[in-house]
Design brief:
Blueprint lengths: L10 E2 L3 H10 L5 H8 L2 H7 L2 H10 L10 H20 L2 E2 L10 H14 L3 E10 L5 E7 H7 L3 H4 L13 E4 L5 E3 L5 E6 L2 E6 L5 E3 L11 E5 L7 E8 L6
Antiparallel strand pairs: 1-2, 3-4, 3-11, 4-5, 5-6, 7-8, 8-9, 10-11
Helix pairs in contact: 1-5, 2-4, 6-7
Length: 245
């Protein structure tokens, strides 16, 4: 039986540790401003040069607090901006909670929707199927990225299939041998003679998708989906560890 239209939609807020991170880095507009905040009066009087004092703080030799690198500061700043943007946008709507879901893959992705929308989890979906011309195609799909770009209602209710696109992380047409790779905000494809793998842009860890491997990367699991809807479906779930500050 379908859920009532006026049933309350489940919402999720950003984790408390993310809030602390956002509050911390947004105090400073630049990395130099952060370094200046860590310079003590004694350091300034002794060194007599702001640039040198900043270098000492950056290297961890001086300062009144805990030093962080420029890259770490910039990464935190970027993530904080995303968090603050989500605050302004309000609570995150979980679409699948409002729908009746029947198909196997739709159920699996519905169970992962909230975690992907809040980037506690990033799922790479491998799908191999046939297009409208009968050609065999496959792709590695950034689920969180697709969720931001597409309305998944038709997919969740079983009206449309989730098909590989040339805009996905990696797309291959087995008949024409066309191969395309693309970056997203979450992953960067890496390819060599051993095949393709994906670097997570949030924690810089590698997701390995080689079926011969028994280890798929730090924080990554691999799940085969038993379904007749597609030729093949595999889910790679990459769990992001939250930093404490």
């Amino acid at each position: 039986m379908n859920k009532s239209k006026d049933q309350s939609i489940q919402h999720f807020n950003i984790d408390d540790d993310q809030n602390a991170m956002a509050d911390f880095v947004t105090e400073f507009t630049t990395y130099e401003a952060f370094l200046d905040s860590q310079i003590s009066e004694n350091d300034q009087n002794y060194l007599q040069d702001s640039d040198i004092a900043r270098e000492f703080v950056e290297l961890g030799y001086r300062g009144v607090g805990h030093g962080i690198s420029r890259k770490d500061f910039q990464d935190r700043k970027h993530r904080a901006e995303l968090i603050l943007h989500s605050r302004r946008q309000g609570p995150i709507l979980i679409l699948s909670d409002t729908l009746t879901i029947v198909n196997t893959l739709a159920k699996e992705l519905a169970a992962r929707e909230e975690a992907n929308r809040t980037t506690r989890l990033l799922t790479i979906i491998f799908i191999r199927d046939r297009n409208h011309l009968g050609q065999e195609i496959s792709a590695y799909i950034d689920y969180a990225h697709r969720l931001k770009l597409e309305d998944f209602t038709s997919f969740f209710i079983g009206k449309n299939k989730l098909l590989p696109l040339i805009t996905d992380l990696s797309f291959y047409n087995w008949n024409t041998h066309m191969c395309v790779s693309n970056d997203t905000n979450n992953f960067h494809p890496l390819s060599d003679v051993n095949g393709i793998r994906f670097r997570c842009e949030h924690d810089r860890k590698i997701v390995y998708v080689d079926p011969e491997l028994k280890h798929y990367g730090d924080g990554t699991t691999r799940t085969m989906i038993d379904t007749n809807e597609y030729l093949q479906v595999i889910l790679y779930d990459h769990y992001l560890r939250r930093k404490k500050f």
